[in-house]
Amino acid sequence: MVALAPVLVFGVLLAVVTVPFVSLGPGPTFDTLGEVDGKQVVAIQGTQTHPTSGHLNMTTVSQRDDLTLGEALTLWLSGQEQLMPRDLVYPPGKSREEVDKANNTDFKNSEDSAEYAALGYLKYPSAVTAATVNDPGPSVGKLKAGDALDMVDGHPVANVEQFTDYLKKTKPGQVVTIDYRRKNEPAGTTQITLGSNKDRDYGYMGVAVLDAPWAPFSVDFNLANVGGPSAGLMFSLAVVDKLTTGDLAGSTFVAGTGTISVDGKVGPIGGIGHKMAAARSAGATVFLVPAKNCYEATSNRQAGLRLVKVETLGQAVDALHAVTSGGQPPSC
């Protein structure tokens, strides 16, 4: 009985005591050319799309928090999970809800950047584009995110600089007329009574704008609850694949990761070893790697998984053409 007591105490500790670590490991993958819950992951409406084949899978990292001592030891001994100090994932001073909200915002921004990067690659012309419409704000119910703003009070605005310069000549309470184009709808005109904002002495419209390629059709991404910006590259490739003839992947199972900027530059991400493991487990034979992640990727190489190095969306498209035609794309 005396010998059994410490064993029982240790067992209770394993089952009850939590540790300040988070477990990271291979997460699920999603085919950006396929469907989730009956909806296309990348849905394009208002223009002709083309059939696709193969796979263009985005990859994720799974995350487990509130681990008991026993769970942490089991995951660590498995060799497939990585334990990280919790403060690196959830910084002190920020709640889990705040961090998750920030990750979801990054994910939404990656969707927008993916659309703009794909349209830019396909040579759609740039426009002053409403990125967000603040609610509450003077433009709610009059403008929508995604609108192209062409004229202010009859003055054409070709870029954000011209748009901002004109607004700086206005005053709070002034009514301005905006000519806009809206996706899948006729062009329109609306009048907005400008508000005031403490950070400026001119009129406040409540719209964040950017110079971005614009198309008259809509691109929607139907993949919820996946945080972070690292799906951008694969989203862009899916848009390009659906709007062009031929297949980017052919019969190849391609997976990958990487952030994407509005101008199509591919950026590095975290957890690439876990994402490669997830891709290989799902059946991928080709993995698109951001150039700055190549060293880490080669250190975590998976048998049977070809690593293709990419720096821009255009390079990724060219690399996939090389893969499907039997060529030699850049590799890590």
From TrEMBL:
Keyword Chloroplast: no
Residues of the active site: S230, K275
Catalytic activity: Hydrolysis of proteins in presence of ATP
SUPFAM superfamilies: PDZ domain-like, Ribosomal protein S5 domain 2-like
GO molecular function per UniProt: ATP binding; ATP-dependent peptidase activity; serine-type endopeptidase activity
EC number: 3.4.21.53
InterPro entries, sorted: Lon_proteolytic (IPR008269), Lon_Prtase (IPR027065), PDZ (IPR001478), PDZ_sf (IPR036034), Ribosomal_Su5_D2-typ_SF (IPR020568), Ribsml_uS5_D2-typ_fold_subgr (IPR014721)
Top-level lineage group: Bacteria
Gene Ontology annotations of biological process type: protein catabolic process; proteolysis
Keywords: Hydrolase, Protease, Serine protease
Domain Lon proteolytic, chain residue ranges per copy: 225-323
Principal EC category: hydrolase
Keyword Protease: yes
Family: Belongs to the peptidase S16 family.
Protein name, entry field: endopeptidase La
Native source organism of the sequence: Mycobacterium conspicuum
Upper classification of the organism: Bacteria, Bacillati, Actinomycetota, Actinomycetes, Mycobacteriales
